[in-house]
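G., before I forget:
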Amino acid sequence: MPLGDTILQVENLQTHIDTKMGLVKAVDGVSFSLRRGETLGIVGESGSGKSMTALSILRLVPRPAARIVGGRVMLNGEDLLSYDAERMRRVRGRAISMVLQDPQTSLNPVYSIGGQITEAIANQQRKLPRLELLKRAVAALKTVHVAAPEQRVRDYPHQLSGGMKQRVVAAIANSCEPQILIADEPTTALDATIQAQYLRLLKEIQQESGLSIIFITHDFGIVANMCDHVAVMYGGRVVEYGPVRAIFNSPAHPYTRALLSSVPAVDRTVDRLYSIPGQPPMLWDLPRGCRFAPRCEWADSRCHQEYPPTVPSLDAGQAAHTASCWKLEDIGLENVRC
Amino acid sequence: MSSDEQESVAPIEPGSERPPEPQPSSGRRRARWRNYPVVSIFILVALLVFPAITADWLAPHDPLQGSIPDRREPPVFFGGTWEYPLGTDRIGRDILSRIIHGAKVSLSISLIGIFFGGVLGTLLGLLAGYFRGWLDAVVMRLVDISLALPTILLALVLAVSVGPSFQTVIIVVVFVLWAFYARQVRGEVLSIRERDFVARARVAGNSHARIIVRHILPNVANTIIVLATLQVGSVIILEAALSFLGVGIPKPTPAWGLMVADGRQLIVSAWWISLFPGLAITLTVLALNLFGDWVRDRLDPKLTQV
């Protein structure tokens, strides 16, 4: 499916969190853009700022500790950060929707799933008659392939399996026909077969409605499967961005290369799985230069002193493939073992 | 023994694979004990609620109008007559009638007090738990203060300054109760607000008010109901204690605590004046507490320790 115009442009987004340890720059100048019908994968370790980026786009960072301190989030040419609370509230669910990690707790246990879907619809379109709402709820369940939706609308969350719940959540998120769906590790709590079903479902919804998806995950398998573009995050910054093929075939940033190396491959026997040496940086005590420098085998003194600029990767022709690294020439393009 | 075992197995539904009880006899005893109170509780509660509602025509005499010639009449089996089954007090008012009307007073004080205390406490608890921050700090310090103040002292101060009345008692009850709701509800909200469905509701563009009312309140409703039921008994005791001290319901309204106080100088010669209202308090509170326990077990097993 050809990609359309840019609908979301995130520029230099910065979100800080006050903690006991000090100020944490959870999102530190993140930029990316998203086009109609595109799926952008955001990958990175826990604490790399993926989820905080997503919450910042929706302006739902946990206040008062966290706050967005800079940048722009342009949705269809308008800066969401300049919206007042009421206007922002109407963006949520309508223009941008979100699926959360754990389907087990994403549904309110005291309402039937039909009730929860109709609530989402009624939120956006008031004054729909009850019967019409119910019909739409059934239709929404049908689009996510819930069997016997007419009966299921009356079920309560505890009567559904995990995969079913996540599909219901997807139905809710999709019921208002959003332009952008942010999926924050939606498959972490699901087992492998259910995962595959669920991903296929998302693809299907996307193809039908031209939905753009921001897919937050740490699973490269899912990224390869789902995404058009990938942003790799480390220490609150995007260290590499590019088309999914380029990221997999010619990863430029040492961190991306290390990540790909630590993915187990089924076609190769290894004694020990590669793991990145060292620990992710403490976010309240980030290195002055490149955040990855302390763990990077290529790092020299400049890497420790200055944060590298974002430059086009060496694989010319892939114009959109960029990385933030001083050592791109030294590293070269030779393939990582993956 | 075999018939015993069958009896103990009987309530288990066919098809459900429950492992056999290790000690059938003790298991059966427990099963019976689980069911006995329910029936008796309902009877006792009905014995309280029914007279309270129908007091005006159920009571054989006017609770306020005494008949001096019949004063200190003993109960029916202690030399009295059926005219006054539980005897009369020192100005000849029928004890039974006064107890029946007293049920109305006790019950309405508990219900009104618990209603307002519950609403106030729940509201503050919801807001404090949901918004956290300074609001939470302020509300919780108020809770601490409220729980630290001695109830009786507060009631005495209020009664002295405002004068004892039905409203004063309600105010004292509300003042004592709200903190329990606020504390309990806040605690629950703290955990519920972190659940994903609240985040999802936010993401879907719901306002804070709507999330609190539609998504969080229903999840704490059970706790509130359980707390309210468990409190009826203690409120009745509180009201009785206040009335006994003369800072609760003013005379001559028939309130149980007042009646106990009334008879205490005559406890040797006319014991029934104090005994029967005292028994009424005891039985009522016992029944209500058992009822509250039962409701709690049914609705909210988590709260068993409260």
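Residues 233-331 of chain A form one domain. The mean pLDDT of chain A is 85.

More on Monday.
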